[in-house]
Amino acid sequence: MTTTTTGIQAINLVMVPTSDQDRSIEFYERIGFEKRTDIPFGGAYRWVEVYPPSGTTGIALAPPRPGEGVEPKEIGISLTTADIDATHAELRALGADVDEQVSRMGDPVPPMFWFRDPEGHSLMVVEPS
């Protein structure tokens, strides 16, 4: 194990820009996330955090910087599931924008699919071996 002097110990939050926090909260709660923080800050802003039910790393649904819009992008978040096919079917049944099918490339790449949030940001779901 490498020791550093920075003091960094874990990933806490991943920032995901959203132009409509209420719409994003509704989406993430619908797909099983828990809203753990929703507090006002800086005047007209809110700080919102959502987490997978057993997760310790959350997603901060952050407003864009003043004067900037929100552009859909692949945000680099990978979520895990014990049953990729059931999760794919459930997200589809909940109305999420999911890939047509689960991608299976073979070892060592786990089965996976992408889905998009209301802003069009792409997140990946994988079933680790």
Key features of this structure:
129 residues, alpha/beta, 4-stranded mixed beta sheet, 2,3-Dihydroxybiphenyl 1,2-Dioxygenase, domain 1
How would you characterize the overall build of this protein?
Helices cover 16% and strands 34% of the residues. With 129 residues, the chain is of the alpha/beta class. The chain has a single domain, classed as Roll (2,3-Dihydroxybiphenyl 1,2-Dioxygenase, domain 1), CATH 3.10.180. A 4-stranded mixed beta sheet has the order 1-4-3-2, covered by helices on one side. Strands 5-8-7-6 form a 4-stranded mixed beta sheet, covered by helices on one side. The longest helix has 10 residues, at 21-30.
Spans of at least 5 consecutive residues with low confidence: none
Please tell me what the overall shape is: globular
Strand order of the largest sheet: 1-4-3-2
Number of strands: 8
- Structural class assignment: alpha/beta
Beta content: 25-35%
N-C termini distance: 24 Å
Q: Determine the CATH topology.
A: 2,3-Dihydroxybiphenyl 1,2-Dioxygenase, domain 1
Overall radius of gyration: 16 Å
Provide mean pLDDT, rounded. 94
Total tally of structural domains: 1
CATH superfamily: 2,3-Dihydroxybiphenyl 1,2-Dioxygenase, domain 1
